[in-house]
Amino acid sequence: MEAIDNFAKKQTRVYMFMPNLIGYTRVILAFLSFLFLPCCPITAMTCYSLSCILDALDGTAARRYNQCSQFGAVLDMITDRFTSSALICYLAMVWPKWTFVFQFLIALDFSSHYFHMYSSLASGSPSHKILKEDAPKILKLYYSDRRVLFTVCFFNEAYYVLLYLSSAYYGTIFTFQFWAILSWIFLPVFVFKQSLNVIQMLGACLNLLEADEKKIKESQEKAN
User: Any keyword rRNA-binding (predicted)?
Assistant: First the structure.
C-alpha cells in the first residue's frame, strides 16, 4: 500500500493520476466482458462487475491523492455510460421483444447524464455532483451521500447483470431460479434509479432554460 501511495503522490501528469489509471483498467475490463458475453457468462460478469466496483474506487483515489481532474470526471462518466449501454444492447439481442424498453433505457441514461453534465458546466459548478440549493431533495441526497449513491448504482448495474445471467441460464426471468428471483428483488431499486434519471434530466433542462432566459433578458436590457 505504501508503494502505491508513493507512486501516486509522485504523479504530476494528469493522464497518470491514480484515479485515471483505475479508469483505464475499468475500460479494459469492460471490453473483456463484452468479448465473453456470448460464450462465458461467469467470466463476462466477473469482468463487468470488477469494472463497476472500481467505479467506487476512482473517486476515493481522487480525493485521497488530491487528483481530481476534468479528464477523470469525463472518463468516469463516459465509461459508466458505454459499459451499461453495451450490456443493454446485448440484452436487446437475447430478448428482442423487449428491444423498445432497452432502447428507452439507453436513451434516458445518456440524455439524463448529458443534460446534467452540460448544465453543471454551464453554471460553473466544479462538479456534476454539486447541485444547486433548489435542486430536488432526493437528487441532492443521491449525490451528496456516497452510501446512497453506491447502493443505488450497485443495484442498477446488478439488475442488468441478473437479467443477463437469467437469459444465459434460464432464457427467462419468469422462473423460480436463483438469478431470476434476485432480479425481481433488485427491480424496485432499479426502477427508482430510472426515476432519478428522469428527475435529473428535467431539472437540468429547467436550469438550462432558466440560464437562456436570463441571457436573453440581459441582452434585451442592454439593447434598450
Answer: no
